[in-house]
UniProtKB/TrEMBL annotation:
Residue ranges annotated for the Tr-type G domain, each copy included: 14-229
Residues that hold GTP according to the record: 23-30, 85-89, 139-142
Molecular function GO labels: translation initiation factor activity
UniProt keyword Phosphoprotein present: no
Coiled coil: none
Protein's job: Function in general translation initiation by promoting the binding of the formylmethionine-tRNA to ribosomes. Seems to function along with eIF-2.
Keywords associated with the record: GTP-binding, Initiation factor, Nucleotide-binding, Protein biosynthesis
Domain of life: Archaea
Recorded family membership: Belongs to the TRAFAC class translation factor GTPase superfamily. Classic translation factor GTPase family. IF-2 subfamily.
Protein name: Probable translation initiation factor IF-2
């Protein structure tokens, strides 16, 4: 509370922590997000959760309504939690902010019956690399025989020896998860035993199906943010906005637009912005800032309404000219009274932070975003597979031309992650003996390539 007095010429406020949901396919990421949104709508008054672009904001008073006695709102001065709507570690690794991941915290969803799967491990690698604090949601506990929601959520009641025994009897699976986390170098425990959520990973049993455990999950996230991340939430609310592009897409009546998360400052409808693009920074003037209309109005009116300004942390759709080359995952900076060259240099630097070491000889990698390009490249580097070219964008004939110059037969390959392969490029690849690998799961993409290499090696023996 005391640091709120320290208002100088800039206006320091605490922004909402940004939360991402990661995990293996079918483990319940989408269901969990839906359940959190649903709980918020039920617990809040109408209008309690605001419509955002690309994210859902759950304010503190709504969290406290959901969590009941678990959350006393007077203990907190962070405004709530902002959940990024697109689940999956692919989108997570795409969403960068200065020097790291856009999300401040992550929920790693693990199906209790299924345990750690390849994408769980992939997600853990990314969380480690970005040093993002996370909580494990051990999902689908409603499917474990013997689980009794009224008895087994110990934080909601005083934990006695009897309930502790019940918990440990039905929760073998949860302890298996804790074991798997420790195999991966994390100290973890059931969340009600964790004292320091930064040092230890808390495992929260939940059911996205029944909603059980959601209050506990929200409580733990709110506590973690308040205790360990408050300093990072301090922003200059009225300063020039800083954000990340979530998606580049066509919006009817506005042409190419950006769905973006603003995580510092404010963006205004009359601002000039600098955005990371395929050919370098794009400088352009905002034409309109758009937000979704409240749900009940959508059917009758236009889908979006224009707003004058959006302050961090928040999602917004930005309409502006010249956005065709903008890249998902790239930085956005508001120019306002800042030095133009300096801001452009900042964006350039952030774009070049995506380090991919390319060599004279190696494979070609194409990906949909900077974040995914980086993730694939680091996987390939770990496996000592050299890369000759790594770029964002569709596979074009010129990529095939590059790939065919490789001397090693195993290197005459293009790994395409979540991007289109142009027809001309596909034809040319076939003609020139360049093999195309296409996937939108990193480990499958690399596995496909590995199998191909094994095949070639075997045929050479
Ligand atoms: P995602 O691929 O990780 O986003 O997973 P989804 O949210 O699409 O869930 C995959 C499947 O698991 C769907 O059929 C869900 O209905 C189901 N599911 C998700 N959460 C739960 C849960 O808590 N309990 C049960 N019984 N089923 C669940």
């Amino acid at each position: 509370m005391s640091d709120q007095d320290a208002t100088t010429e800039t206006e320091h406020t605490l922004r909402t922590p940004i939360v991402a949901v990661l995990g293996h396919v079918d483990h319940g990421k989408t269901s969990l997000l839906d359940r959190i949104r649903g709980s918020a709508v039920t617990a809040g008054e109408s209008g309690a959760i605001t419509q955002h672009i690309g994210a859902t904001a759950v304010p503190l008073d709504v969290i406290s309504n959901i969590a009941g006695e678990l959350v006393d709102p007077t203990d907190f001065d962070l405004p709530g939690l902002l959940f990024i709507d697109t689940p999956g570690h692919h989108s997570f690794s795409t969403l960068r902010s200065r020097g790291g991941a856009l999300a401040d915290i992550a929920i790693l969803v693990v199906d209790v019956n299924d345990g750690f799967q390849p994408q769980t491990l992939e997600a853990i690698d990314i969380l480690k690399r970005t040093q993002t604090p996370f909580i494990v949601a051990a999902n689908k506990i409603d499917t474990i025989a013997g689980w009794n929601p009224n008895e087994n959520m110990p934080v909601q009641q005083t934990m006695d020896a009897q309930s502790e025994r019940v918990v440990s009897r039905v929760n073998e699976k949860l302890y298996e998860l804790i074991g798997e986390l420790s195999d991966n170098g994390f100290s973890a425990d059931m969340y009600w035993r964790v004292q320091n959520f930064q040092a230890n990973i808390g495992v929260v049993p939940v059911s996205a199906e029944t909603g059980e455990g959601i209050p506990d999950l929200l409580t733990v996230m709110m506590g973690l943010s308040q205790r360990y991340m408050k300093a990072e939430m301090e922003i200059d609310a009225t300063g020039p906005g800083v954000g990340t592009v979530l998606e580049v897409k066509d919006t009817q009546g506005f042409g190419t637009t950006l769905d973006a998360i603003i995580y510092d400052g404010t963006i205004r409808a009359d601002d000039t912005i600098v955005v990371g693009g395929l050919q370098g920074p794009i400088v352009t003037d905002v034409r309109a800032l758009l937000r979704p209309r409240p749900l009940e109005e959508i059917r009758t009116e236009k889908q979006f309404e224009q707003v004058d300004a959006v302050a961090a942390a928040d999602g917004v759709k930005i309409a502006a000219p010249d956005l065709d080359d903008a890249i998902a995952g790239a930085p956005i900076r508001v120019l306002r009274d800042r030095d133009r060259a300096e801001v452009i240099a900042e964006v350039e630097e952030e774009l070049s932070e995506i380090e991919v070491t390319t060599q004279e000889e190696g494979v070609v990698v194409k990906a949909d975003t900077l974040g995914s390009l980086e993730a694939i490249s680091s996987t390939l580097e770990e496996e000592e597979i050299p890369i000759m070219r790594a770029e964002v964008g569709a596979v074009a004939p010129r990529d095939v031309r590059v790939a065919e110059t490789a001397n090693e037969p195993t290197h005459r390959a293009i790994l395409a992650f979540s991007v289109e392969v142009l027809d001309d490029a596909r034809r040319l690849a076939e003609q020139e003996g360049v093999t195309l690998f296409e996937d939108d799961v990193i480990y499958q993409l690399v596995e496909g390539y590995d199998d191909h290499v094994t095949e070639i090696e075997e045929s050479q023996q």
